[in-house]
Design a protein that fits this description.
Layout: H1 2-15, E1 21-23, E2 32-34, H2 37-43, H3 50-74, H4 76-99, H5 105-117, H6 122-125, H7 130-144
Antiparallel strand pairs: 1-2
Helix pairs in contact: 1-3, 1-4, 2-3, 5-7
């Protein structure tokens, strides 16, 4: 799902402009890039900047609308949702694996594999992998006897 989501994100970036507006704030040398209406409001405070603020907000909302619409049409939005579901399932399965005892070398290999391959093992290993390694060692001792 991650690969699909990244491929679709690349297509989305080619098909639609980033939902970001570049603003030239009076008194500032470098342009300011805003991704939210709140950022625009901070860059253009006060009543004298109302017109610039409204124009920038309208441009941002238009870009965001096109981004969302194009993302939906390409399937990017759906792929992102599916990626979150798959990620959650991956963690649930890894946690279930770690709660169970390995009854074969294949089971031990599966535990080691999940420990190595999980992108962020800290989510269920904590800062110390020793308890998981002890679990693997206990499985190996039990299998060997």
């Amino acid at each position: 799902m991650t690969v699909l989501q990244r491929q679709l994100e690349t297509k989305l970036m080619e098909a639609a402009d980033d939902p970001i507006v570049t603003l030239h704030v009076p008194g500032e040398e470098k342009p300011f890039r805003a991704m939210t209406v709140e950022e625009i409001e901070q860059a253009f405070p006060g009543t004298e900047a109302r017109e610039a603020r409204n124009e920038a907000a309208a441009r941002l909302q238009s870009l965001q609308h096109k981004w969302v619409l194009t993302g939906w049409e390409l399937g990017y939005t759906q792929a992102c949702k599916e990626e979150v579901i798959a990620d959650k399932l991956e963690w649930e399965l890894a946690e279930a694996l770690w709660r169970s005892s390995a009854n074969s070398l294949d089971g031990v290999v599966a535990k080691l594999h999940s420990m190595v391959e999980m992108q962020d093992p800290d989510a269920f290993i904590s800062d110390n992998p020793v308890p998981m390694l002890r679990s693997i060692l206990a499985d190996l001792v039990r299998i060997n006897t």
